[in-house]
Amino acid sequence: MHFVSLGKTEAIGASCYLALIDNTGILIDAGADPDEEGPASLPDFDMIHKRSDWHVDHVLVTHAHHDHIGSLPVLVRHFPHVRVHMTRATRDLTDFVLPASARLQRRKLQEGNSIHAPLFKEEELEEHRFLYAPHDLNTDFDVTGLRGQCEITARFYHAGHVLGAAGILLSWESEGQTRRAFYTSDTNQHPQSIVPGGDYPEPPVDILILESTLGADSDAELTTRKSEEKKFADALANVLARGGTVLIPSFAFGRAQEILALIHRFKELERIPFDIPVYTAGSMRAFADIYDRTRFNTPRLDEEFRVFGVDQMRLPRKPAMLNNALQGPAIHVAASGMMFERTISNDLARRLVEDEKNAIFLVGFAKEDSPAAQLLTAAEQGDDAEVQLDRMKPAQPVRCEVQRFRFSGHSHRRDLIKLVERLAPKTVALVHGETNARTWMAENIRFFYPDIRVVIPEEGTPVEL
Ligand SMILES: [Zn+2]
Ligand SMILES: [Zn+2]
User: Fold this and answer.
1) Top-level CATH class of 2-217+409-464?
2) Taking the C-alpha atoms of 430, 436, 440 and 445 in order, what is their torsion angle to the nearest 10 degrees?
3) CA pair distance 441, 416, nearest whole angstrom
4) Residue range(s) in the chain whose domain bears CATH number 3.60.15.10
5) DSSP string for 362-382
6) CA of 441 to the centre of ligand 2 (A)
7) What is the DSSP pairing of strand 463-464 with strand 2-5?
8) Is 305 in contact with 258 (CB distance < 8 Å)?
9) What kind of fold does domain 224-404 have according to CATH?
């Protein structure tokens, strides 16, 4: 298998890989770089046009996060004949995620918050829909290309990351032997609150293409979900008991639904009072609806659980009612998770931050320099250190409680190393992680399993796996 990354590889970036197997071209994921805008956020699709022996027959999309699906419409424009394969739930999510992304890009340009023309328009997405082929988990489907010299089958495995997320197993015959390559995509081996832990193929595989998101995070492996849940429940109970309002900035797809399920469980177990009002807002409600609609045909810890079964109110817009909703005790779950400017969580944070009764609990990754990371830094300094959550507004003293909890949708690095042992590959290719994360992973795999070949693919440089 020739394997090349079309997105940058020194950071998370846009997930997008081309796998060439005996003249079949399979593109894995079509992400956009969340740290970039406009053309700079795209994988380098021109790289494929420049090489006469490279082409794309099939596209496999692992899940509906922006860094895995955000450039799909542009990819289809480059290669209009492709067939795009995904799980049924990812297919449902795609119908919401891509039009929402088109609208956001248009709005940013109109409001002068971006200089880039939208990469795609809502109307063209309608035309792409017939290219999308939905598949069940654990079911083989054919991905042999027109010029393919051997038959190739693909199969999706539940990845345990978010709704619809899947790892991919590719199988083909080469020189009389069956070869198997498994791409984990973003994966979590342990159950969250709604989504159970991932499933993986029977060992051994020949090639393992492994994500490395938490490869440089030494703290992640020291916390267990159980201890983190206890810490979270105790902290919530404390703030609510003193009549405070808790803001939980959450990524709208995945984390917000998992957090709501957790709050529901805390109420049922009487860890927090049952009558505390919970407010939700924005697109997380649309994602919740898709979680609920798919609950009987996607992996669940409890298929009876509905996100909208959790008692919640829509955050009011009218100022007087909003003020009322912010009077504690109350819980607000709002996007964005990093509290970017002009988002609901940023607005709410500015309203809550100066009152010591309140709390802002961060439950996801906070990129350096994001408002969420700045808030954490200011809170650690203490003494009313100030934070400027919106560059157009004045700085404010941080008086509310600020805490960070670890509820990652990814496996931590020691678990990823255990997955290597379990799948017993001959070759591991490390992807989707910062350079130091992939270096830690490589060193540890080489140390524990010296017979395994470890490859660190670099953007645009093909490797033979
Ligand atoms: Zn993801
Ligand atoms: Zn990802």
Assistant:
1) alpha beta
2) 20
3) 8
4) 2-217+409-464
5) E-S---TTSHHHHHHHHHHH-
6) 17
7) antiparallel
8) no
9) Rossmann fold (3.40.50)
| Percent of the chain clearing pLDDT 90 (strictly above) | 92
> Of 54, 8, 413, which is closest to residue 215 (Cα–Cα)?
413
CA–centroid distance, 212 to ligand 2, in Å, is 10
219 pLDDT exceeds 90? Answer: no
**Residue 38 pLDDT > 90, yes or no?**
yes
Cα of 283 to ligand 1 centre, how many Å? 17
Beta bridge partners of 300: none
Q: How far is the CA of 257 from the centre of ligand 1 (A)?
A: 15
Which residue, 403, 400, 433, is CA-closest to 416? 433
Residue 407, token pair as written in the block: 């509820």
Structure-token pair, residue 94: 């795609």
CA of 68 to the centre of ligand 1 (A): 7
Q: Which amino acid is at 383?
A: D
Listed in order, the ranges of the chain carrying CATH 3.40.50.10890 are: 224-404
pLDDT in tens, 136-165: 999 999 999 999 999 999 999 999 999 999
Q: Kindly identify the ligand whose nearest atom is closest to the C-alpha of 29.
A: 2
- Gap from CA of 187 to ligand 2 centroid (Å): 9
Q: What is the pLDDT of residue 365?
A: 86
